[in-house]
Amino acid sequence: MKCMYCKKEIVEKLSFNNVFSKKDSLVLCEECKYNIDINITELAEYTLYYFGDYEFLKEIIYNIKYSGAIHKAERFRELFSLFFKKYKFNLVTIVPINNTRKYSRGFDHIAQLCNVCNVKYTDTLQCDYREKQSKLHKKREKHKFRIIDNLSFEKYPKRILIIDDVITSGNTLISCAEVLKERFPDAEICFLTLAKS
Ligand SMILES: [Zn+2]
């Protein structure tokens, strides 16, 4: 049996008990057990799920984000899979990258993280980034997200999940949630991030 996160072989005695309990739960080595979990907390009026503290995950996140080593995101695949077994959503979406950053780095690491981890998502938001204006008008920066053109669903999405890599202040995720809430006022909105700082 391998650790879901670091993929290290876990040596343990198989008892009747743990064969059955392992199927839908986290399988982690002793080291990862302290650092990785499907954590649940509250952020404003929303539910936030995250896998670990930023201190523990910062190196891998840095790799995914800046060095283009997106394959390293593979180690989150089983965690995502278990997460979606446990929690169901009608709409999974991601925090959009602003166009300026996308062009300078050349890739959207949240979209790629989802692809590597087999997370099916729908683009719902876009980010209009106006640097000069946001410096002058702080409020404008907070509400820089908007719903993409021509977004439509056959069914009203009752439970919406927004994915991002790291949560710090929560401002970005809350801004995204507010925009979606305007469009889908009856939806319950949750967040999932790899890390919380
Ligand atoms: Zn491990």
TrEMBL record:
It holds the Pfam family Pribosyltran. Belongs to the ComF/GntX family. Signal peptide: none annotated. This is ComF family protein. Transmembrane segments: none annotated. It comes from Gemella sanguinis. InterPro entries: ComF/GntX_DNA_util-trans, PRTase-like, PRTase_dom. Residues 87-189 form the Phosphoribosyltransferase domain.
